Amino acid sequence: MTVGTDAIPLVDLQAAHLEVAEEISGGFRRILASGAFIKGPEVAAFEREYAAFCGIAHCVGVANGTDAIELALRAIGVQAGAEVILPANTFVATAEAIVRAGARPAFADIDPDHLLLDPVSAAKAVSTDTAAMVPVHLYGQLAPMDALATAAGSGAAIVEDAAQAQGATQGGKPPGSFGLAAGTSFYPGKNLGAYGDAGAVMTDSADLAQRVRLLGDHGSERKYEHVQLGFNSRMDALQAVVLRAKLHRLEEWNERRRQAAARYDDLLSGIDEVILPRTAHGNVHVWHLYVIQVPRRDHVVQVLNEMGVRAAIHYPVAVHLQPPFRGYGYGPGDFPVAEAAADHIVSLPLYPHITVAQQQMVADALRRALRASAT
Ligand SMILES: *Cc1c(COP(=O)(O)O)cnc(C)c1O
Q: Which atom of ligand 1 lies closest to the CA of 67?
């Protein structure tokens, strides 16, 4: 089979761009004429619009998603040496943000059905040093927030990692409404993606929003008045232009992702070696990633890639086993569900503009890859 132009990409950013290209060039011209490149009215407008879209009182634009989580943890007062609970199955940034905030990552396992932070394992990770818990709304659906809040108890604040869950809800409620705050990322490949790095903190607390804003802008509210030590973590206006244009389409694009996910469910349900992703009760899933589980995973992915299907793995190694986190006393076997999932998960191509024909090709290729790997 051919690869190259016929390949089915994991995500198709170009197709999304074509829908917003004109609006974005117009916006870029406006910013170039204004000379306001960092923060400014465009960023303020996006913050209002995204807060309204989410149904959260405040959105504070920052430089990226990792900063969003770090600044949220700092703003809620996580102290150096405190412990912060997170799932072993997540993008490394969740753990980085915790360490950068001065805390110690306390990993917990995931549940086998949804691959999200498991409340039973999270409860076991709680200690007298626990300051916070960071549930990750991985792949596009929310972690089980009621059970996790119970597991956290009164001593641990909750900050949500909503980088993969833009537009997702649980019981009709958005990320940021369960914990004190949620951090999100507008990395280009996210459901709402910028053309560079960007991120945001969402919170219903005006006080917390203000603290994040201060931290992200050199500890300053007025130019050259620095009330505390801060950071440089601001959203730039060109990214806000892109995000505003795309935000108008996000609901429709998420709906198209849901339709594509349902189509994969149909196309793949007859293959008995494949475990399909499941949506937890009460969740509206936005399908950042469509993650199946298969036997002989590495071989299957290799064959898929050779056939031009750009399947990927999110993530091939559980975070507690990555070199930077080995010093915290964890090892192989500590989180069996996360470690087993890391060996079997495959993310199939999924994006709003994927066609039925492309999805059929992916399904056919998967059948062939499973057969090829069995011999
Ligand atoms: C993308 C992502 C982040 C970090 O976002 P950046 O903008 O790359 O810093 C954090 N957590 C998860 C789960 C992510 O997918």
A: 9
From ligand 1's centre to the CA of 68, what distance in Å?
9
pLDDT of residue 4: 47
**What is the greatest pairwise CA distance in the chain?**
68
Pairing of strands 104-108, 130-133: unpaired
Strand partners, 184: 200
Which residues touch 108 (CB under 8 Å, ≥6 apart)? 85, 86, 87, 88, 117, 118, 121, 122, 124, 125, 335
CA nearest 39: which of 246, 304, 218, 295?
Answer: 218
Of ligand 1's listed atoms, the one at least distance from the Cα of 197 is 7
The residue with tokens 């943890």 is 73
Encode pLDDT of 34-46 as tens digits.
999 999 999 999 9
Entry pTM: 0.97
List of the chain residues with pLDDT < 50: 1-4
Q: Check residue 375 and give its pLDDT.
A: 80
Pocket, ligand 1, Cβ cutoff 6 A? 64-66, 90-91, 93-94, 136, 161, 163-164, 185, 187, 197, 199
**Peptide bond just before 315 cis, omega within 30 deg:** yes
Task: Tell me how long the chain is.
Answer: 375
Q: Do residues 201 and 59 lie in contact, with contact meaning Cβ atoms separated by under 8 Å?
A: yes
Question: Considering only CA atoms, which residue is closest to atom 2 of ligand 1?
Answer: 163
Measure 299 CA to ligand 1 centroid, in angstroms.
27
Neighbouring C-alpha atoms within 13 Å toward the C-beta of 143: 36
DSSP string covering 116-162, please?
A: SB-HHHHHHH--TTEEEE--B-GGGS---HHHHHHHHTTT-EEEEE-
